[in-house]
Write a structure and sequence with these properties.
The protein has 304 residues and is of the alpha/beta class. The chain contains ten helices and 14 strands. It has two domains: 217 residues, 4-Layer Sandwich (Metallo-beta-lactamase, Chain A); 75 residues. α5 packs antiparallel against α6 and α7 packs across α9. The two termini are 29 Å apart. The mean pLDDT is 96.
Length: 304
């Protein structure tokens, strides 16, 4: 891939599964982020093919949203690999607290996995023949990390920076601080000497300054009216669920809003619960207009 050393390979997966970054040197192989549970078998197949008979030695998760760690369990079943997760998430994984891990809050699934070690900001590890600095990236997720290799000037940014924005600022849905943290993360990226960014979603890119300008602009727009973040979160989570199940009744969607705390909190920012049916009609109508879904009388469907 242009701009990346031969030892770094990116599997661009789309929006239900995060990108997977495979780093291979003479001694070890490592995979950063593993996609969603429904794509786990495909993740294993992609890694098997790329390793061509070698074993996967290490899994690293930038954060533990289900689209970044949903392939962990099947990869661990295939290879007895080390698994490194953010240190701040260790207790939740050890106790398999699905509420703390956000799976229940977002109406998403993840097969249970274990871990052998943790990573915290300030740590350094070697992958693909390069040294990588571990950088904290709260905002989208309080526990999230980024990985930066100064020598090839590559940043694995997870959902802290995409070419056209960044991930939903989830803490703000629950009344916690997230916008200020996202601002600080963007500021930290701006101080790095980065030639290529490997985002959590979308293709790697080299126009880093332009991407940062877009991200700063979007963040200012969200901070000016936090309801915009809530509306975006609901749209993202609805489309994510629809990509998984392909069709969903409007009644089932309303139940999701009531039972999944992240959706519930976002919906409460936008409307009283008595007005949720109208809110859903508005949101799904906008998503249908953009082509993200097909709206029927009593259900929504993923586009063909």
């Amino acid at each position: 891939m242009p701009g990346l050393p031969a030892s770094i390979r990116v599997f661009e997966r789309g929006w239900l599964s995060s990108n997977n970054v495979l780093l291979v040197d003479r001694e070890r192989s490592a995979l950063v982020d593993t996609g969603y549970a429904t794509h786990a078998a495909q993740t294993v197949a992609l890694v098997q093919h790329a390793l061509a008979g070698r074993a996967l030695d290490t899994i690293i998760n930038t954060h533990l949203h289900s689209d970044h760690c949903g392939g962990n369990a099947q990869l661990q079943a295939q290879w007895p690999c080390d698994t490194l997760i953010p240190a701040a998430s260790a207790r939740a994984v050890r106790e398999w607290d699905e509420a703390r891990l956000s799976f229940r809050a977002t109406a998403q699934t993840c097969d249970r996995f274990g871990f052998t070690g943790t990573l915290a900001p300030g740590a350094r590890l070697t992958m693909g023949g390069f040294d990588w600095d571990v950088i904290g990236a709260p905002g989208h997720d309080p526990d999230s990390l980024m990985l930066y290799a100064p020598e090839p000037r590559v940043l694995i940014s997870a959902d802290a920076l995409w070419e056209h924005g960044f991930g939903v600022i989830f803490p703000e849905l629950e009344g916690e601080s997230g916008f200020a943290e996202q601002q600080a993360v963007l500021d930290a990226i701006a101080q790095l000497d980065v030639a290529t960014v490997i985002p959590g979603h979308g293709q790697p890119f080299t126009n880093v300054n332009t991407a940062l300008e877009r991200a700063y602009s979007r963040l200012a727009w969200l901070r000016a009216d936090p309801a915009r973040n809530a509306k975006n979160a609901l749209k993202v989570l609805i489309v994510f669920k629809l990509l998984e199940v392909r069709t969903l009744g409007l009644g089932a969607l309303e139940t999701m809003l009531a039972e999944a705390s992240a959706l519930h909190a976002a919906a409460q920012q936008l409307a009283l619960q008595s007005a949720w049916p109208a809110l859903l009609r508005e949101l799904t109508g906008e998503l249908a207009k953009s082509g993200a879904l097909v709206l029927r009388e009593d259900r929504i469907e993923a586009p063909e």
